[in-house]
């Protein structure tokens, strides 16, 4: 029976941002259900039963990989987190009381897409820039990149932060224009990091 099975602590981590999202417990049955459905399942110690994350709220968690620690008594769910995880409505159970995005670039992507979809060009710089065409957009990206270089050479922190923010914003508009999700960019960065890490381990042998 489920009650007789040992319970293991399970940490849920966003596989893209590596943000820790929540801690819960699972028995073997919950682990097996998570593997077979790719949806996070746990075991409630207070209710003494299995439960699927999001079974009442709809905020399910898609699990890409399950990792076991070296002692075999704890697990890590690497997951795609697209909904608030905490019952308070925050993205993470370890966040403050406010709503927030685990990935600021994903938040920026959402803002750009919303402005393009909802605002007329005369009231939205984002929509206006999009309607000026790809040539103008890539020109702006180039201009902002030059501004970053100039600010870096001047060596002042505040202007540099502002110029980097401007560049990221215009890159976000470009990714929307080219239909490139930020999640794909994040995945590529993680792939490169993992490749570099593996190469470093190989060289150290």
Describe the structure.
The protein is an alpha+beta fold and 205 residues long. It has two domains: 8-81, Ubiquitin-like (UB roll) (Roll); 104-203, MazG-like (Helix Hairpins). 47% of the residues lie in helices and 17% in strands. It has helices at residues 28-37, 104-118, 125-131, 134-154, 157-177, 182-204; strands spanning 8-14, 20-26, 41-44, 49-52, 62-68, 75-80. The strands form two sheets. Strands 2-1-6-5 form a four-stranded mixed sheet, covered by helices on one side. A two-stranded antiparallel ribbon has the order 3-4. The longest helix has 23 residues, at 182-204. 19% of the residues are buried.
Salient structural properties:
four-stranded mixed β-sheet; two-stranded antiparallel ribbon; elongated; histidine biosynthesis; Helix Hairpins; 205 residues; 2 domains; hydrolase; Ubiquitin-like (UB roll); 6 strands
The radius of gyration computed from the alpha-carbon positions, rounded to a whole number of angstroms, is 22 Å
Reported CATH architecture of the largest domain: Orthogonal Bundle
Query: Could you name the CATH homologous superfamily of the largest domain?
Result: MazG-like
What name does CATH use for the topology of the largest domain? Helix Hairpins
Strand coverage percent: 15-25%
Total number of domains = 2
Helix proportion of residues, in percent? 40-55%
